[in-house]
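> forwarded from #structure-qc
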């Protein structure tokens, strides 16, 4: 048995326990780090070959493992942009240089550029929603971009569609020809009137007056006429420039609309041509006419807050209360998550052992869901780590005694001739 082998074995044991203590210290230091995954050191024996008459001491090898696939406790937070993943998957993030990584650390906040950045400075990535739902690239991170809400701030949308709903009173008096709203004369009369706000191309409000009048052209016929309120005289009629749109509504014996198609178009002053649907209007003996008018479009407004759905859809909520889907957050994974390479900032990179990246949307396939207003805690158990620290400390001391014993034996050999 080699004395130097004894000493090398002792050094190997001390190095192995030192490696374990390093992992334990990292775990304890990050016990409150959002999304942190516990590291552990595993040992395997290292055997030195020799003859059968003499034992050759070997040593111990260490392998570091990461419990990346073990989910930590999900706890609620006070921020709507804090995100946690319930189930399988990672957020895709990039550093300032654009290098992509994967992470479970979802403590995101808006920076000065309206981008979502986590506490380590990594930018959350997503697919922009422009024309319908985006298409995920299943085996690549191509097509992703930083989620940036500055692009939708103060955006105005013109009115392009609307609807009339409600009932008309079948007992309303017939308005004589020549005094109908469409005649647009000082003596024009009507059965009912409503006003509605629309928006031009720049987001300016355009108030429209909508008149309903029962006509004498049929037993169950009505006229709908739209005017620009800004062109009205002091008494209403006449409106300068005439009506913006006129439609005739005919009803059957049971009061159901028979006009087809049940739409008409209105040219919004300074804006687009809006298509108005009146297919949900009926006629009954109600004693009064009750209509509900609704249109789309909005005035310029800043983004006030952000809402994120479980399926990863990011909604920009404007100061005027409007909501708009702007991005879709994907999730990424690999065949062997525990083999990912940990990097500073609580992020992971793909390697040959982990396998290639797989991308999908939350709540599809094997991917989990996103919880907004929540954070995934570290999966470190403090009691377990403190126990492991004590065990490793004792083992380190024992190995140092082996080294010390080998050193003392070597001293005996060196001093034999004295």
């Amino acid at each position: 048995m080699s004395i130097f082998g004894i000493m090398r074995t002792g050094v190997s044991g001390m190095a192995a326990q030192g490696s374990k203590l390093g992992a334990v210290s990292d775990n304890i230091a990050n016990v409150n780090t959002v999304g942190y995954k516990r590291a552990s050191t595993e040992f395997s024996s290292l055997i030195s070959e020799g003859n059968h008459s003499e034992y050759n001491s070997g040593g111990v090898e260490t392998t570091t493992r990461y419990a990346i696939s073990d989910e930590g406790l999900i706890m609620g937070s006070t921020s709507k942009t804090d995100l946690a993943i319930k189930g399988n998957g990672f957020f895709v993030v990039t550093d300032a240089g654009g290098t992509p990584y994967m992470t479970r650390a979802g403590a995101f906040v808006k920076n000065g550029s309206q981008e979502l950045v986590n506490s380590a400075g990594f930018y959350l990535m997503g697919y922009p929603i422009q024309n319908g739902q985006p298409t995920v690239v299943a085996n690549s991170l191509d097509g992703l971009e930083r989620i940036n809400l500055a692009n939708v701030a103060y955006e105005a949308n013109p009115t392009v569609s609307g609807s009339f709903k409600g009932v008309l009173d079948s007992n309303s008096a017939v308005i004589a020809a020549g005094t109908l709203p469409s005649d647009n004369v000082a003596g024009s009369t009507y059965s009912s009137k409503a006003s509605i706000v629309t928006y031009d191309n720049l987001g300016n409000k355009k108030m429209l007056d909508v008149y309903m009048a029962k006509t004498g052209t049929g037993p169950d016929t009505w006229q709908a006429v739209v005017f620009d309120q800004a062109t009205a005289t002091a008494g209403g009629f006449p409106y300068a420039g005439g009506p913006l749109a006129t439609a005739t509504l005919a009803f059957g014996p049971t009061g159901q609309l028979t006009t087809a198609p049940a739409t008409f178009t209105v040219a919004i002053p300074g804006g687009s041509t809006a298509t108005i649907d009146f297919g949900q209007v009926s006629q009954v003996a109600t004693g009064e006419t009750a209509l509900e008018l609704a249109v789309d479009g909005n005035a310029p407004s800043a983004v006030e807050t952000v809402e994120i759905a479980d399926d990863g859809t990011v909604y920009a909520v404007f100061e005027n209360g409007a909501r708009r889907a702007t991005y879709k957050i994907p999730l990424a994974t690999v065949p062997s998550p525990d083999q990912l390479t940990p990097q500073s900032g609580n992020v992971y990179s793909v390697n040959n052992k982990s396998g290639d990246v797989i991308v999908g949307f939350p709540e599809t396939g094997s991917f989990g869901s996103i919880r907004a207003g929540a954070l995934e805690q570290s999966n470190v158990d403090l009691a377990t780590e403190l126990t492991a620290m004590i065990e490793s400390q004792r083992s380190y001391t024992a190995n140092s005694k082996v080294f010390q014993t080998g050193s003392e034996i070597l001293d005996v050999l060196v001093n034999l001739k004295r």
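QC bot note: The helical segments are 3-29, 382-414. The mean pLDDT is 90.
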